Amino acid sequence: MFNDDFDFSSGRQQAARNILFWRIAQIALWIVGLIIFLCLLLKPSLGILLFWNILIPVAPALLVVAAGVWRNICPLATTNLLPRHLGLSKRKKLSASQAGKLNLTAVIILYMIVPLRHPLFNNSGAATALLIFSMVITGVGLGFIYDWKSAWCSGLCPIHPVEKLYGENALVTVPNAHCLACVNCVKPCPDSTPNIHPGASSKTIWHRISGLLIIGGLPGFIWGWFHVSDEARINSISSFFGVYEMPVAGAVITFIAYCILLFTLKPAFERKLIGFFAALAVSCYYWFRIPCLLGFGNFADDGLLIDLKGIIPEWAVFVMVSSTAIFFFYWLFIRNQNKKSWLIRPEFAESRVVKNRKLATGDFS
Length: 365
Prior knowledge:
1% strand, disordered N terminus, single chain, 13 helices, mainly alpha
């Protein structure tokens, strides 16, 4: 009997080489993630610098240009999918309602966690490590129960709503380094659907609400987040809500604006509208983030990577942020949809079974 992952064809050999490349990349990123995790516990200042001021600032741009690359090498995804790769998953299917509820929960978790960076995660390596560990345990737990990427990578992961918003017009499509065969674990598959976006699935009210919240709310949420200092502290109920005040207010404003435009414009303009709000969100992020990284932020050393104040003129920073904004608006709003998916859809499981049966029996008719 032939092994499911082996074929004598040149196409299968090429696929094996591709998988080997991605496996090496996954292991390398997993080791990097482990190092960052240990630094957060043992060398908190270094861990916070590596995670919040290097890894996280790079991620949005990568999601815009090549979301599939991130989907292949994300250390959390690699860990979450271990039960499936090792044959330990129960491989349960999610109903449309369950998938929609997970999508909505992911958006809510994102909006709940990010404001806590200021008083907690940006200042505490242990708290950040606990956050990462909690996501790992949750992801692996879901991986033992549900099939492939359905419950975590395409469901409860709080980064996934941002992936769908930013990655709607990806530059490249790369091989799928996780799914050996497509079993339709989630519909539509975010990895294999061309130009996927948060509004692509409207099967349930949960899908529709999650799409509206992330598309409309994220630009204002980001703007408001950058108007809160890392010196904010939670020592009372009022101070706790104070951490959320600006991000939530900003999110409400842009959410209302999006809803008005959505119901005013013709349906044909919906995709352009989504692209505009995606560009607005990621441009807003880098408009504030780049100055913070270089010492030109609104709040002293918040988010500082390297202090270049006094070394480069402020107008140079303005050129940087303006250039990134122009790029993102071109990429996500002005540029035509390219009909590309993040990843190449693997063979459907049924067709692989048929092919392997023919190989085993010598029936090549």
